[in-house]
Structure formats: C-alpha cells, structure tokens
Amino acid sequence: MYELIKQDGLAKRGRLHTVHGVVETPVFMNVGTAAAIKGAVSTDDLRGIKTQIELSNTYHLHVRPGDEVVRKLGGLHRFMAWDKPILTDSGGFQVFSLAGLRRIKEEGVYFNSHIDGRKIFMGPEESMQIQSNLASTIAMAFDECPSSVADREYMERSVARTARWLNRCKKEMDRLNSLPDTINRHQMLFGINQGGVYEDIRIRHAQEITELNLDGYAVGGLAVGESHEEMYRILEAVVPYLPTAKPTYLMGVGTPANILEAVDKGVDFFDCVYPSRNGRHGHVYTNQGKLNLFNAKYELDERPVEEGCQCPACRTYSRAYIRHLLKAKEMLGMRLCVLHNLYFYNTMMEEIREAIEEGRYREYKAKKLSGMA
To answer: How many C-beta atoms lie closer than 10 Å to residue 315's C-beta?
Structure first.
C-alpha cells in the first residue's frame, strides 16, 4: 500500500508499505544487477549507507545462476542475505539492449543469451514466473522498450503490444500469487508507460494502464538517447495522467540533477547504475560537483572526498590514499568510491524527503543544483 504523506507542488513525499518493510519516498534504488552491487559491496554495507531498496535484474539472474536455483535456495532475499525490499526489472530493457540478438513476436521475445548464445524465450508469463521464483518485493511488467527515436508507426504498434502484455502479466501474477507454494504471495506489480518522445501516445497509454489499478507505475523508455530536455518534457506531459496515489518510477535515471528535476515533476522512485559505475572509475559525487580522483591534483590531498560526509570512505580515508588505491588497481579504491557515491545518493534522497515535508523543495533543489554546477 502506498501512502501519500505530503505534496509540495508536484513533488511527492510518500511511504510504500510492503511485505519486506516500508520504503520512504522519494527513493533511489541501489542497483545490484546480479544480486550484488558491483564494486565488492555487501548487504551489510548497504545497510550502513542507508539503502532502503535494492534492484536486481530478471534477465541476468534467469541466465545465471537461474531463477529455479534461486527459488530452491528460498528466493532472492535469502539468497543474497538482504531482508529489505527488492525490485526486479522485467527483462524488457535487456531485450532492447540485445537488439542484434532478438526477435519480437506477439507471444514474446526470442533471443540469445549474451553469455553462451543459447536460445531463450521470454514473454509476459515467463517474466512473471521468473520474478515469482526470485520472490522479489516488486515485479515489473514485461514490456517492449523501443528506441526513443523510433518512428510514430512503430511506436504505436509497440505500445499497443506492451499494453496487451501488461494485461497478461497481471493475470499471470494474480495466478502465481494464489498458489500455495509461491514464496512471496504478496508480490507487487508495477506497470510501465512507453511511447518514446510522443506525448499523445504516452498520455493515451498512461490512461489505459491506470485503469488496471496496479501497485505502481513506471515511466520507461527514457534516458536511452533523447536529450534531458526531451525527458523532462515527456515527464511534464505524462506524470499528471498517472495516479498520484501510487508510486511513480522513472526507470534508469539518473544523475543527481535528473533526479532533482524529476522529483519536481512528481516522480518518487529512481534507479541508475551511475553511482556504482562512476565510482568504479574513480569518479565521485560531491555537493560541489563530480571529482575524478585519478587527477594528479589529488596526489597530496589529505581531505576526505567530501568534508562532513559520514560514508565509510570519508570517515577514514583521504583523497590521496583513495587515488593511490585506484592507480595501483587495488579493489579497495573502487569499493570506497562506490560506497561514497551510493551514500551520497541515499543521503540526497533523505534531504529531498525532508525538504518536501517542510514545503521548501523548490528552494532546496535550486540550492543543490547551483552547488553542483
């Protein structure tokens, strides 16, 4: 159940109650594609850096170790020793990213594993079955994620198919949740709005999927090639047609600036690989902008990555030491940068929630953006 606590303009301060605990929103979901955050980050680490909810990837876990294996081991929570909420994406985006290896049909998608080339079929029912085996808290509907620059005719056909697939997902999830041997019989389902950069297609699709009264709604197919301005334009157009009284999730986004702007447009769930991916390359986020710790100017810099930061890296280590680790290709350097970045994101979300509660979100956003410019 989603509880809308406060609105400041369109910015929402909410609370999602799940079988695995409460998620305070707006929230950033820390991305653990293969049931782990890249960068040697443990679930104990996640608790220490204020992670509320972790995101894992349906396609990758289906390929390795196999969702049946995870099921036999008690589901994803037990498998990775994480007792808080987990969202699993549907595999739809991987189908998009594996464009050279797949064929889309009405029944689903035929494609080849990126690991060993074996043939895989995934449709709405298969995606729901895999996610039920994983026993995540929130399952995403299986959709087609067309290129944001696809022509109108293709986009119309694609979105109509995604709408039909969503109905199949809902029917299959209702069936799976009714079975006595299902691990998580309270699994939630989020639908996904598609339509590229065509406002009218997006709005029509949003109106259609809202009628299904799902647990939450995502805006997909953005941050895949279009400009930030186009993304914001689409959010302004479509979010008002998604139910305010349900979570609104912008998939795969993004930078701190993207998140700050999207919150202002009514979005309250986010995920992105940026903080961990950038951290693994020595790029760290601060309130004064992003730093590249490989730069020579940090060779003798005894300050923490950010003064006052309480993350595991900043409490103990200097920029100079972390730079040395990175240059020496020591895994600890990468790990510390990832921990710092995730802590930065999770802390920013705390600040966002507080600002909305106090009715000063616009002021907070302006100050945060000007500091990071």
So the answer is: 9
> Is 90 labelled a binding residue?
yes
Q: Which CATH class is domain 2-272?
A: alpha beta
Q: What is the DSSP string of 94-151?
A: HHHHTGGGEEE-SS-EEEE-TTT--EEEE-HHHHHHHHHHHT-SEEEPP-----TT--
On whether 169 is known to bind a ligand per the annotation, the reply is: no
Q: How far is 122 from 198, CA to CA, in rounded Å? A: 27
- The annotation status of 283 as a binding-site residue, yes or no, is no
Q: Please give the residue that has the higher pLDDT: either 346 or 105.
A: 346
Backbone angles phi, psi at 31, to 5 degrees: -85, 115
Distance CA 108, CA 130 (A): 14
DSSP symbols for 253-268: ---HHHHHHHHTTT--
Q: What is the mean pLDDT of residues 348-362?
A: 98
* 83 appears as a binding residue in the annotation: no
Q: What is the residue type of 359?
A: G
Of residues 260 and 104, more confidently modeled: 260
For 252: left if phi > 0, alpha if psi spans -120 to 50, otherwise beta; the answer is: left
CA 183 to the chain's CA centroid: 23
Q: Cα–Cα–Cα angle for 166, 185, 52, nearest 5°?
A: 85
Is 111 annotated in a binding site? The answer is no
Q: Is 309 annotated as a binding residue?
A: yes
Q: What's the pLDDT tens digit per position in 102-147? A: 788 899 988 888 888 888 889 999 999 999 999 999 999 999 988 8
CATH 3.20.20.105 residue ranges for the chain: 2-272
Query: Can you tell me whether residue 314 is helix, strand or coil?
Result: coil
For the full predicted model, state whether its pTM sits above 0.85: yes
Residue 109 dihedral angles phi and psi, to the nearest 5° = -125, 130
Predicted local confidence at residue 102, as pLDDT: 77
List, for residues 17-35, the tens digit of each pLDDT value. 999 999 999 999 999 999 9
Reading the block at residue 96, the tokens are: 């998009």
Alpha carbons 299 and 293: distance in angstroms, whole number: 9
Residues classed as catalytic: 89, 271
Residues 6+ apart with CB under 8 A from 22: 15, 16
3-class state of residue 41 by DSSP: strand
